[in-house]
Amino acid sequence: MEMLTEKLGLALVFSFVVWVGATVFFMLFGSAVLAEPGQDAFMLRFLLLEAGTFALLYAVILAYRRVDKSRFAAVKLGIVGSAVGLCLDTFSLWHHS
After folding, report:
1. What is the rounded distance in angstroms from the CA atom of residue 27 to the CA atom of residue 33?
2. Which of 24, 47, 48, 79 has its CA 20 to 30 A from that of 34?
3. From the CB of residue 80, how many other CB atoms can be counted at a distance below 10 Å?
4. In degrees to the nearest 10, what's the CA dihedral of 28, 31, 37, 39?
5. Contact, 19 vs 84, CB < 8 A?
6. Phi and psi at residue 21, in whole multiples of 5°?
7. Which is higher by pLDDT, 62 or 7?
8. Sequence-distant (≥ 6) Cβ neighbours of residue 80 within 8 angstroms
9. How far is CA 60 from each of CA 1, 3, 37, 75, rounded to the nearest angstrom?
10. Distance (Å, rounded) from C-alpha 45 to C-alpha 27?
């Protein structure tokens, strides 16, 4: 259990930065990258968005593992990142005007 709580603050910071980055990206470029499911370019945009997300999250995990050398660093970031993202998404949707 100690391995998962070690450097927990760092995982929280990384998770918050990833969430802010994703939120700002969609605020700035959402209309350009998102498409309705019925549009012709939907599948291409969707696949490009998924590939870009995969590449960026993989880079974030590699960067995090350079800082946190513990055995389960990537798992810890995944769990903490999911929890932080869900909480912040809930808060932002709740207070959306």
Report:
1. 11
2. 79
3. 20
4. -150
5. yes
6. -60, -45
7. 62
8. 8, 11, 12, 15
9. 23, 20, 29, 13
10. 17
The pLDDT of residue 3 is 62
Taking only the tens place, the pLDDT of each residue in 56-81 is: 999 999 999 999 998 899 999 999 99
In whole angstroms, give the CA distance from residue 95 to residue 13. 22
Two structure tokens written together for 61? 């995990």
pLDDT tens digits, one per residue of 31-47 = 888 888 988 889 999 99
Contact between 79 and 14 under an 8 Å Cβ cutoff? The reply is: no
The helix/strand/coil state of 62 is helix
**Is 0.90 surpassed by the pTM of this model?**
no
Instruction: Give the whole-number percent of the chain exceeding pLDDT 90.
Output: 69
- Other beta carbons less than 10 A from residue 68's beta carbon: 20
- Could you tell me the residue ranges of all domains in the chain? 2-94
Query: Torsion-angle region of residue 7: left (phi > 0), alpha (psi -120 to 50) or beta?
Result: left
